[in-house]
Amino acid sequence: MSHTMNTNLDNPADPALEAALDALAAEDIAAAPAGLESRIAHATQPMLSANMPPATLRLSPAHSATRGHPLLIRTFGLRLAASLAIVGTIIAAIVASRHGPAAPRDGSPAPIAVTQDPFDPLSDEFLAFAWGDSSESSIDSIRAAAEQLGQRLEGDFWGISDLLSEEGST
Amino acid sequence: MGERSAIPMEANAAPHADQTPADAARLAHILRLASEGSDEAWRALIDTYARRIFALAKSRCRDADTAEEITQSVFATIAVKITSGGYHEQGKFEPWLFRVAANRIRDHVRVSRRRRECEHAGPPGMAEPTTPPEPRSEGADADTRARLRAALVLLPENDREIIELRHHGGLSFKQIADILEEPLGTLLARHHRALKKLREILEHSQKQAEAQANS
After folding, report:
1. Which residues, 6 or more positions from A108, have their beta carbon under 8 angstroms from its beta carbon?
2. Tell me, what DSSP letter sits at residue B6?
3. How many angstroms separate the CA of residue B39 from the nearest CA in chain A?
4. Where residue A80 falls among pLDDT bands split at 50, 70, 90?
5. What count of Cα atoms within 13 Å lies in the side-chain half-sphere of residue B165?
6. Between the N and C ends of chain A, which has fewer C-beta atoms within 10 Å?
7. Do A17 and B198 touch (CB under 8 A)?
8. For residues A34 and B64, what is the distance between their CA atoms, to the nearest angstrom?
9. In the CATH scheme, what architecture does the domain B15-128 have?
10. What CA–CA distance (Å, rounded) separates A7 from B19?
11. What is the rounded average pLDDT of the residues B182-197?
12. How far is A155 from chain B (nearest CA, A)?
């Protein structure tokens, strides 16, 4: 260690130069724009009051969706509802397409087209396979229930039963 | 949040001095309140340190807007850290704060230098000023400060950092040693050498100025 080096923490090594550097620093401190502190306080206030990092960090692996982020729950709920609606619409369309026109308003029975296609949801084979019961009475009752459901769905979903009834009567 | 904090804290009352135990206790109290979300305590910290950090950044960047941006970014980091438990008070808040500031300034300097190198691919090894020249002001003192500023630009990065932490940051040698993670003796030697280099640069530029005046 050089004997000229400043080993005393209180004594500057080059007093004139250090005084000039202090003056330079004072000039830079004085150059701080007015309202600097207020702007910084305003900008950092949300980080302080949130008492935690911004919301993006809540979605880190440490915070799983099961712990309840409202946005995730809402998104999941909406997706589930949309999926159910699509599936319901498809089922209704299948049932309605197999059923044919709705019953006329005068009370006379509507013609029902029953196919024996093995992939038809209302065929004997399909119903026996699906329900595990091939007895005729059981199949008839299931088919009747499905047809009734189809009639209801057709009336509710498509709104064309009246139109079909009019066409049938003319 | 627009008014100054009512919590009393001496803003750089004794530059380059280590904290007294009373100062340290007061700062620890304010830090605890700020970490619990106290606006007033947070404002006290900003009032105490914002201008020093601004001066440190401005000395390097020479642009007030950039310096304010850096200062704001430093306080944003501090706010997140102290409220999320990322900082544990051990009486070293100032070194920590200024280390964050020094790192942020270094990053900025590195990025701007790279950008400048891309824009003006000059001959290698040429010492270029890292900042635009200061507007010249009137008077002998102003002239001295302008020459000093120009000389600081020519100092190596590490030497300049020590000098700026000491004078613009108002930190003690011990705090600077903490920030740079160096033994105190090493830091004192480096500071001494940095001042010597600065003095030599100033004398050289003085001679050049006199030679130009005579010719």
Report:
1. none
2. S
3. 8
4. confident
5. 32
6. C
7. yes
8. 11
9. Orthogonal Bundle (1.10)
10. 20
11. 92
12. 59
State both tokens at B130. 């890292």
Counting Cβ atoms within 10 Å, is residue A50 exposed (0-12), middle (13-18) or buried (19+)?
A: middle
**Predicted local distance difference test score (pLDDT) of residue B12:** 43
The residue extents of the domains of chain B are 15-128, 139-215
Closest of B23, B22, B41 to residue B32, by C-alpha: B41
Pinpoint the alpha helices (H) of chain B. Answer: 21-35, 39-61, 64-83, 93-119, 140-154, 157-167, 173-180, 184-214
CA nearest neighbour of B99 among B193, B178, B202: B178
The structure tokens 């430093």 sit at B74
Three-state secondary structure call for residue B172: coil
Interface of A with B in 44-73 (CB under 8 A): 44-45, 47-53
**pLDDT grade for B165, boundaries at 50, 70 and 90:** very high
Residue B152 and residue B60: Cα distance in Å, rounded? Answer: 9
Please give the sequence-ordered ranges of beta strands (E in DSSP) within chain A, or none if there are none. Answer: none
Amino acid identity, residue B8?
P
d(CA B162, CA A65): 48
Q: Do A20 and B37 touch (CB under 8 A)?
A: no
Contact present, B38 and A28 (Cβ < 8 Å): no
pLDDT, tens digit (0-9, with 9 covering 90-100), for A85-102: 888 888 887 777 766 555
Question: Which alpha helices (H) appear in chain A, and where do they start and end?
Answer: 15-30, 36-50, 70-99, 124-131, 136-153, 161-169
Structure tokens at B58: 């401005």
pTM confidence score: 0.58
State percent of chain B over pLDDT 70: 80
What is the CATH number that goes with domain B139-215? 1.10.10.10
